[in-house]
Amino acid sequence: MSIKSSRRPFSLALRLTFFISLSTIIAFIAFTWFTLHSVENHFAEQDVSDLKQISSTMHRILQSPADPDERKISKIKESIASYRNVAVLLLDPQGDVLFSSAQGRALRPAVKTEDFSAHSRARDVFLWTVEDPARPMHAGSEMKMETYRIVASSGEATFQGKPQSYIMLIGLSIDFHLHYLDALKKNLIAIAVVISLIIILIIRIAVRQGHLPLRNVSNAIKNITSENLDARLEPSRVPIELEQLVISFNHMIEKIEDVFTRQANFSADIAHEIRTPITNLVTQTEIALSQDRTKKELEDVLYSSLEEYNRMTKMVSDMLFLAQADNNQLIPDRVMFDLSAEVIKVFDFFEAWAEERNIRLKFNGMPCLVEGDPQMFRRAINNLLSNALRYTPEGQAIIVSIREQHNYFDLVIENPGKPIPQEHLPRLFDRFYRVDPSRQRKGEGSGIGLAIVKSIVEAHYGKVHVESDVRSTRFILSVPRLEKMSQAARH
Q1: Which residue among 114, 269, 284, 489 has the highest number of C-beta atoms inside a 10 angstrom radius?
Q2: 100 touches 166 (CB < 8 A)
Q3: 5 confidence band (pLDDT: 50, 70, 90)
Q4: Residue 27's CB: how many other CB atoms inside 10 A?
């Protein structure tokens, strides 16, 4: 069994602050590293340039045949006097010292290294860390280590009146540069820490200010209650990133308001519909009890009461049916049946009423097989046909037709009569909706017949709509074909 983590996700403000601060700090660290690297390279290039210049000067002095040894030594001392922290060591092939400056002997151990062998032939520069014996030591203190950048080279010159080979090491102490770089690193680290804290603080404030419109929207939403569902947020007054959120919220509130309005009207309509039969029952009972009645009069009262009971029973049954549809508990049977055959069955049921009102029933269509619950479809057709008979003038005809569309079969119930205003058409399938503003019912309809039709059709993955003009009013039920219905059922 897997255990889901109950840890709450980090806030958006914290995430933004972290990632923006991290990106900024990384960029600052990269800039700091680039600065240190540039300074270090600059010092190295400067040191190499000085060493190569000194080396060229030393070789020119040593290889001058006209100067005696004392003169050459004098010139070497004069050349290195203008440079600070320069050490020169001149050796013969046997390793004996021909000349050494004050710190020159500190370079002697470098001769035995692989770096010296590799770089002396090409006159390259390499680093060498040595102990400086010239520096005074205190008791108990460690030997002072000093780092030199060394150029090693060899050549031939005249010494003591005879030509001989020599090895020359010229070292430049870079401790001053290293101390400067070390201090620079420490300063930059301290500055980086301070700047990073300032960056985090600034970004935190910026993110908080950036979320201000979101908090304003949240506060506006918090102030919307069931008492002011007509309130709407203004999309043009929020940042563009929140515009779609505000539009979606407005659409949601609009739907909720519509549901609340329908619920309020629904409750009022139920009270209105139930009050009428109850009032009739109470009135009839009071009249019957007001004085002695014959058996025939009492039977008439009971029959009248029975009609009201039947009407209330039908209304309760219809409301339970719609409640099942609202809770997705309306599961129709799935059998194959002929839709045109169901229309003929409903025609047979209404034939007597149509003849009584001098209204003709016409059917134009072909046999078409659909999958679903035939009793539910019969009920939907029954509701639409009874509605059409109620509003069709005498001597006219109601035409029911079936036509084939690309993915649907359309069942059209068309009746002549007074056209329904266009503004009422989208609301006809609402429960207890009246086109008449006075909300008074004529006839025996319960006011939820069309709502039941819509629930039945939608339970079969179909759709229903109404059209009305001066010629006729048409209710159109679109039922999916077999393959279309199978795909809808799978999804």
Answers
A1: 269
A2: no
A3: low
A4: 11
